[in-house]
Amino acid sequence: xxxxxxxxxxxxxxxxxxxxxxxxxxxxxxxxxxxxxxxxxxxxxxxxxxxxxxxxxxxxxxxxxxxxxxxxxxxxxxxxxxxxxxxxxxxxxxxxxxxxxxxxxxxxxxxxxxxxxxxxxxxxxxxxxxxxxxxxxxxxxxxxxxxxxxxxxxxxxxxxxxxxxxxxxxxxxxxxxxxxxxxxxxxxxxxxxxxxxxxxxxxxxxxxxxxxxxxxxxxxxxxxxxxxxxxxxxxxxxxxxxxxxxxxxxxxxxxxxxxxxxxxxxxxxxxxxxxxxxxxxxxxxxxxxxxxxxxxxxxxxxxxxxxxxxxxxxxxxxxxxxxxxxxxxxxxxxxxxx
Amino acid sequence: xxxxxxxxxxxxxxxxxxxxxxxxxxxxxxxxxxxxxxxxxxxxxxxxxxxxxxxxxxxxxxxxxxxxxxxxxxxxxxxxxxxxxxxxxxxxxxxxxxxxxxxxxxxxxxxxxxxxxxxxxxxxxxxxxxxxxxxxxxxxxxxxxxxxxxxxxxxxxxxxxxxxxxxxxxxxxxxxxxxxxxxxxxxxxxxxxxxxxxxxxxxxxxxxxxxxxxxxxxxxxxxxxxxxxxxxxxxxxxxxxxxxxxxxxxxxxxxxxxxxxxxxxxxxxxxxxxxxxxxxxxxxxxxxxxxxxxxxxxxxxxxxxxxxxxxxxxxxxxxxxxxxxxxxxxxxxxxxxxxxxxxxxxxxxxxxxxxxxxxxxxxxxxxxxxxxxxxxxxxxxxxxxxxxxxxxxxxxxxxxxxxxxxxxxxxxxxxxxxxxxxxxxxxxxxxxxxxxxxxxxxxxxxxxxxxxxxxxxxxxxxxxxxxxxxxxxxxxxxxxxxxxxxxxxxxxxxxxxxxxxxxxxxxxxxxxxxxxxxxxxxxxxxxxxxxxxxxxxxxxxxx
Lengths: 338, 543
Fold this sequence. Notes:
The complex is a heterodimer.
Chain A: H1 3-24, H2 30-34, H3 36-58, H4 89-102, H5 104-107, E1 110-116, E2 119-124, H6 127-145, H7 156-165, H8 177-195, H9 197-202, H10 205-226, H11 232-243, H12 255-270, H13 278-284, H14 312-325, H15 334-337
Antiparallel strand pairs in A: 1-2
Helix pairs in contact in A: 1-10, 1-12, 3-12, 6-8, 8-10, 10-12
Chain B: H1 8-11, H2 41-46, H3 68-82, H4 84-92, H5 104-109, H6 116-131, H7 133-138, H8 149-159, H9 167-171, H10 178-191, H11 197-209, H12 217-235, E1 250-253, H13 264-277, E2 282-283, H14 300-316, E3 321-324, H15 329-342, E4 368-370, H16 371-380, E5 396-398, H17 402-406, H18 412-421, H19 452-458, H20 460-473, E6 477-480, H21 483-496, E7 501-504, H22 505-512, H23 531-535
Parallel strand pairs in B: 1-2, 1-3, 3-4, 5-6, 6-7
């Protein structure tokens, strides 16, 4: 399968997903049926998410295998790295915090380049880190902003964050900073998969699908606010009714909203079955969330079983004569006992 | 050996462009110089490995057992339930590519399947096909592929082109550790009787004789007596070499190469001199005469079996604690696995240095201390008189061995020893040391000579960093704390950076160590005249 197919299939799928609400929602009564979809997506997300976590959590961690990226704690006079080679739970907590919120390991990224005959150089390579961080943080802020559709009155921090995110609206109405940033970041993440030969080589259709779905959700969201101007008051009415489990569809929200909602639902429902599960997965990663204390406290392997060993007695039985000749001490000295 | 011997400039002409063809279609070519021979039948049988047989990787037919497919799938299922690392790492990779140019085999060969991400995909693709809904339904579109014999061959080729060095796991945003993928991949291969000679033969030797070279106890003793003589020749002091001595305070376990190979040998001399100097009550063991654990390169069960000897012997000899020599993967096992494998060692006591009284809190459960920790503590407490000038002919750099670095965090102790025993020490560039250190290219069972081209390619990034300090500072000695390093660097550096030699840290210590009652040193442990001797016409620096 060549890489064009790996991009075209997901692209075709996302286009189909955009068209689907356009076609079906032409029938007015179908709108209420359409409202089942968010519930399905939420159910798939919640149960799928929990199921995946349980699958991982049920598998034991038989050995203590942290990757140590700093000095161990040995003597008082040697400064140990309490985060990158953590001995305490606090150290692990810091390490996980840095990984989760600031992508610590990716920040280390460097590129190896062969610049001349037998000359390798390593350069800082932080674009992936920056792109990844920009995307994830923007997404977090955007999700947080969306809370204003679900509560009345709106939770003050949501308004506060939205106001900060919206300072550019003085010049560019209806656009948030995070909208810009996430579009740029996702575009970068998509194009690096297409342009960089090695990344293209390792990419799967699922990698493009995740990016294209995200782009679909975000572009539809931006367009429905800035171009098609859907009725946001009606949207909020719908959202509130849905989370109180009494869905009522107000008139005249406009089709672009349904496209946005539908794509978001697909993304949410797909989430637990996709690579996007790296989000909770990182927290379970045994090379990161374990203490470097394996000589201090013994880890028990729950499935440990006896293995075949060659004992000292068997060993001495084989080598008794030469050992005796060499003057090595023996457990059972045959000549002495005879 | 490679069919045609490549010159360094030819080998370093590396093409990083991936092929046009999709990786799922590629077939493995067992090119001479880049793969390991299969294990001999008698050693497979000695270790009672599953499906033993004589076969050859270059043959079309690998004589796999008839139900090999089921064996592999059952083996995968079993391991998915036993190792969270495996299940998680097969699930959460996003193929961001951050690991790609972190692997020394990829940097040195340009083969895209040596990118850690793709090495893992070799197994992930099979996992998806049989263990995930998406893979079962969408097949190839979901990155899944059905298991066939070609895949087994590909696994054999690429899981023995990974030295389990964990460098990629430092850079992975989720901490995905290719070492876990490779270790369990090799276990699966073992289930269908596909293991390499250079892993199984040393492991079977270790199983029977206690050490990987298959040295019987009397030859072990002889070898240590030679060392004793050699120390006498250099220092005029007859050091004691206790073997299998019951009631000694400390059991000393070191890789067997230390007493049979060069330049390991000089490190052994350093140990003997140090132990004499401080009057250590210790013993060697012929039964636990190998610290290195070739089982780790094969399967967890075999690693556990070989490792069991250390505690068994410590118990039999009634020692108080165990001291371990310079070795890489040996310390992965001792630090991260031994206590879990074969502990708790309740018959031992928490290690305390008999010289300084320092309690080794960091080893209070496993009761095994690294020689660099032990020696650094001696130096810090002023218990050793050292004359660094005796190492003046060396301009030294230090290579962090993968496992002590990324699985222990042992960075400062060896550096502390070097700085106290040498006057000229230079670090390699920061992207190539400490947790970012590069493998020697021959670790984890990849060291046989038939694999020489791949070893040289894998060692290229390390050698390149050595070359940098050689050109900048005139470095002529690479110090390290790993037995495989000591075996693989001499040919590697000769190929890429002629003029740089390899030594253990305790060789440098032995050179600098001032012992009471010793004669005036004329040579270092290698029998080479001391720098001062040459320059000052026999006048030694200071004792």
